[in-house]
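The instructor's notes for this session suggest beginning with a concrete chain rather than abstract definitions. Hand out the sequence below and ask the class to guess, before any prediction is shown, which regions might be ordered.
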Amino acid sequence: MAHRPPGANSPADKDPPATAAATRTPSRRLLIVQLGALVVVTASMAAAIPFARELQANPARSYLGLFLLSIQSGALFMLPGFGWAGIAAFAVALDNVWGAVLVGTTGQVIGEMVSYLLGATGSPWIRRQAAYLRVERWIRRWGLLAIAVIAAVPNPLFDIAGAVAGASGLGWWKFYLASWAGRLLKNLGFALAGLGTADLVRQWFG
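After discussion, reveal the predicted structure:
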């Protein structure tokens, strides 16, 4: 049996080459996320209607609940529909689009700082994500505009954007403002869509 010299690695010891499927961001997955978000928001609108009176009777507690829910949704990775649905549902139940959007957006971005801190502290989990290099190129080229656009478009990449911003040394307040602006536009769109959906549900089912 042939012996390998000390320190030599066999082909089996080497890391397998990364496949194209593992290194690219699949557009099909993004489409599924967007369609799933639409279904979740629509279902949430219908579910929120029966609780409108209870939430409107206690607006302070309702907004506090939305704020805490939004912080949690911002801190949870790759579950974007959770936060959108909550904001849209509260906008319908409280009949106040701007109140729900402003409170929810602020909470979401506070929760998103978890991703930023993971990048700032050099967590190896972040760099193992397939979309890391792509998002990094976008942010290096476009800066805060890239963060705002990614935050404004329904997709699961924003957690990676926060981590890249943290890893690149971007000031936390710059990241906060850019992501807040993008999320504000996105949440406003979902809240308005939710109100329209709720009106249709009321018309259909009385």
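Then share the key points. The chain has one domain: 29-205. The CA atoms of residues 92 and 199 lie 9 Å apart.
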